[in-house]
Amino acid sequence: MTVYFIGAGPGAADLITVRGARTLAACQVCLYAGSLVPRELLAECPPDARLVDTAQLTLDEITAELVRAHEEGHDVARLHSGDPSVFSAVAEQMRRLDAAQVPYEVVPGVPAFAAAAASLKRELTVPTVGQTVILTRVAKRATAMPEGEDLATLGRSGALIVLHLAAGYVDRVVDELLPHYGADCPAAVVAYASRPDEVIIRGTLDEIAGKTKEAGVLRTAVIMVGRTLGAEGFRDSHLYSAERERHVC
Fold first, then answer.
1. Does residue 175 sit in helix, strand or coil?
2. Which CATH class is domain 112-230?
3. Which one of 1.10.600.10, 2.70.20.10, 3.40.1010.10, 3.30.470.30 gives the CATH number of domain 3-107?
4. Dihedral Cα 166, 172, 174, 180, nearest 10 deg
């Protein structure tokens, strides 16, 4: 049997992929992060499926559930918020399943930063303004950041920076990015992206911390800082230019 790591999307239940929903509907066991995954998604599971909320489980306990379901002959849906490729803690689960010789597959989902960009109605890569997006976080009570991946270092690039798991440390984020981006650099915070209770905060880098705290946003949010958030008057992309050679060989 197979364990399927499924990206549940950023919050709205209908932002799971078609493949993700179909896979979920075919699994007799579903492990889900109850604090992050919308309950409506569980309706996609078979009526008699065994549902396990992993919010209070340790890695060992989660692994034991996955292995147990496999040994009982069941396909397993391991439902994660967002997309499994970033900040999902999937890597250590896959490592454990490799050791236990349990097969698994990964079904991608819509990441939080993509949902936030959609809510802001912004393309994050804009011709001549910015073509690089950095996805990162800050280290506080969580795992330490690798050497060279601190905000002060990453900020030197001037690229659009997207911070996950950092809303509670917005003052620190601003302090470390101000020397590289400037006080007037566009910034935004999107909490609960795509959900009915979504919160969108826009401003400049020097005012975004105050606005975030005023809105009471502490978690389940992404912080974005970069010039592409306020880009206007930029050159059209060469992709659809009339000057582009379009002859097909």
1. helix
2. alpha beta
3. 3.40.1010.10
4. -110
Question: In the numeric block, which tokens belong to residue 127?
Answer: 């011709």
Give the distance from CA 236 to its chain's centroid: 28
213, exposed or middle or buried, with CB in 10 Å at 0-12, 13-18, 19+? middle
Helix axes 90-100, 59-71, angle to 10 degrees: 50
Give kind and range of the element (H or E) at residue 158: none
Instruction: Give the span between the Cα atoms of 189 and 211, in whole angstroms.
Output: 9
CB atoms within 10 A of CB 122: 18
Predicted structure pTM score:
0.89
Pairing of strands 50-53, 160-164: unpaired
pLDDT per position as a tens digit, 99-156: 999 999 999 999 999 999 999 999 999 999 999 999 999 876 667 888 889 898 999 9
Number of Cβ within a 10 Å radius of residue 172: 14
